[in-house]
């Protein structure tokens, strides 16, 4: 149970947010030659934060961006390989993989931009008490990552009550999860890195299949 001294609102239920069946993890889906699952979510959450208006964490976000993995295949490495063994076939394969990754990155950035625009419109609907609660919880160094995800889940359950009914539930959950991260980072910029990683972990655990379907539908 969440401590009442930190949470002046009462969640509708103490159970985790009920996730639609479409969000369930699908173990049959493989990574392939494109971006790794975790990196897809990294890019999505980072892109969302990058495209949000009126944020107070530009410096922290820039520092975080330097630490994120980049799915790039340096072209100079290709040239060196061709000069030593003349294997042009491997060059073509790697170049194709690079193109696919770049296309996928661009699609993820577009999705992040669209969700950030929706988030900007809904920003004022997030109750300050929810943001204050999350910020205080993330400042607690004794909380485990699971505890942080539980706090995020409880906050998401509360703000889901405000979501527009004409938007699909999974999309709303994804957008609001990232919007909560943005609001916490706005409240206390030093928490950006921690809330970013918890948000990525939460999405990977609960909404990854939906995220991958979003990207795949845009690529088809």
Task: Identify the notable features of this structure and list them briefly.
Bcl-2-like_sf; Apoptosis Regulator Bcl-x; cytoplasm; BH3-interacting domain death agonist; disordered N terminus; 220 residues; mitochondrion; apoptosis
Give an account of the 3D structure.
The chain is an all-alpha fold and 220 residues long. It has one domain (32-219): Apoptosis Regulator Bcl-x (Orthogonal Bundle), CATH 1.10.437. The protein is 65% helix and 0% strand. It has nine helices and no strands. α4 crosses α7 (169-187) and α4 packs across α9. This is BH3-interacting domain death agonist. It is found in: Cytoplasm; Mitochondrion outer membrane. InterPro entries: Bcl-2-like_sf, BID.
> Which series of helices and strands comes N to C?
HHHHHHHHH
Distance between the termini: 44 Å
| CATH architectural name | Orthogonal Bundle
Radius of gyration: 19 Å
- The CATH class name reads Mainly Alpha
Task: Write a brief structural summary.
It is built from nine helices and no strands. The chain has helices spanning about 35-50, 60-65, 75-85, 90-120, 130-140, 145-160, 170-185, 190-205, 210-220.
Outline the secondary-structure elements.
Elements: H1 37-51, H2 58-67, H3 75-85, H4 88-122, H5 128-139, H6 145-159, H7 169-187, H8 192-206, H9 208-219
Helix pairs in contact: 1-4, 1-8, 3-4, 4-7, 4-9, 5-6, 5-7, 6-7, 6-8, 7-8
